[in-house]
Amino acid sequence: MQFLFSLITSLILASFAYYKKAMTTNALILAFILSVIITYYGGLECFLILCAVFLGTVIAGMIKSEKRKEKSKDIHEKGHEKNIGSIIANVLPGALVLLFNIPYMKVIYAAVMAEAIADSLASDIGILSDKPPINILTLKKSTHGLSGNISILGMGAALVGSSFIALIHFIFNYNIKYFLIIAICGFLGNMLDSFLGALFQVKYECPKCHIITEKKEHCKTKTVVKKGMEIFNNDVVNILSNVLSGIICYLILIIV
Ligand SMILES: [Zn+2]
């Protein structure tokens, strides 16, 4: 019965994702499988959290601002569709927490998913900010759309997103302590994402126009590594911060 429920709910979510052209085919297949796992082991509560993260990401991405397109067109490698890497980075850790029945699994799952929504809202909404963002390490003004940036607007959006996930957990469990832990871990995880992004994420320079970008090609020329390590692309930074927010959440849970 629970399996049938997982299949039907996941099929509805996947159909919506397909209709919205939100992800590539490979990403959609993996997302469907992970959704079945999440709903089978975590029930309605965990499924709703997955839906909230998905909807939050879609809605943030839909804010069709010319400003955003203008600001990030030189910076980002990826288009609008989520690829398999971003599903692995944002949904797989949460699904594994439930699959392996880790202690406090639903709280940790919620914290990990709160980080995922905080990250996508911080980047999609933060980029709309009129003020230039600052680099989390140097605290100096930076180019819009680069990893490692923070802005007040982005941080506010991250906090709203992670609190919303914490609220869904609260509605099912009435536990204010867990509410706070989830909201804080999601937010902290996102800050950690910016920190790792600033520290390690690969950034390239265009040899022609000298713009700093995350693209491998600019002005029809191969860009060169300016700083960071090539292995640390956006997905690797995302999965690291996702897993770390789960670990931080677990540590807080066993301490307090
Ligand atoms: Zn260029």
Reconstruct the topology from this structure.
Elements: H1 2-19, H2 25-62, H3 66-72, H4 84-90, H5 92-99, H6 105-126, E1 134-135, E2 149-150, H7 152-173, H8 176-199, E3 203-205, E4 212-213, E5 217-218, E6 221-222, E7 224-227, H9 234-255
Antiparallel strand pairs: 1-2, 3-4, 3-7, 5-6
Helix pairs in contact: 1-2, 2-4, 2-5, 2-6, 2-7, 4-9, 5-6, 6-7, 6-8, 6-9, 7-8, 8-9
Q: Which short descriptors sum up this protein?
A:
256 residues; mainly alpha; three-stranded antiparallel sheet; two-stranded antiparallel sheet; 9 helices; 7 strands; 66% helix; 7% strand; globular; binds zinc ion
Summarize the structure.
This protein is mainly alpha-helical. It has nine helices and seven strands, in the order H-H-H-H-H-H-E-E-H-H-E-E-E-E-E-H.
Explain what the structure shows.
- By secondary structure, the protein is mainly alpha-helical.
- It has one domain (66-255).
- The protein is built from nine helices and seven strands.
- Strand 3 (203-205) and strand 4 (212-213) form a beta hairpin.
- Helix 4 (84-90) runs parallel beside helix 9.
- The protein is globular, with a radius of gyration of 18 Å.
- It starts with a helix and ends with a helix.
- The site of zinc ion has 6 residues, from loops.
